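Bench notes, afternoon.
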Amino acid sequence: MIAMQYSFTLPADYDMAIIRRRIAEKGHLLDHFEGLHMKAYLHATRGEDSRENLYAPFYVWRDSEAMQRFLGGAGFEALVQSFGWPSIRCWQVWDATLPPEAAHARFASRDIQPIAPYTALEALRRNELARMQHDLERGALAAVTAFEPTTWTRVSFRLYDEMPLRSPGEGAQRYAVGHVSQP
């Protein structure tokens, strides 16, 4: 599996109702996309747990063929015509729990952290899995842990019905969820 995210930083005075309306109108279009495990339509409003206005969908793909089919399709082409050519981050998924209840998520968190040189990757994976299980036991509806070996980063992604009270750390971003597609 592959986790993928791109993010559009929007102007500080951008009317985020435009993004919420876009998600409401177009979110269902990937509900049955073959090879997609999940797409969370994420947005963040400046001043509400975010330093910037963001539109930042997060995906989990079965394989690279499905991801390529999406990126080469009309939907992605329309997106880049509206918002520009994004830089896309991809991670190899270590573990993912994506039950049907994830479709009811209202909030998300994404935490990207560096992996120190010479880290024992299997031990790190076990630690991330334990952290993921801990978060699921405390209210996360869905969870993904993954890593990227070019820049040596790891990502923890969670979906929630209610956002936990703890404040996000460096590298963390909180989002509102407009829609979750789970074919």
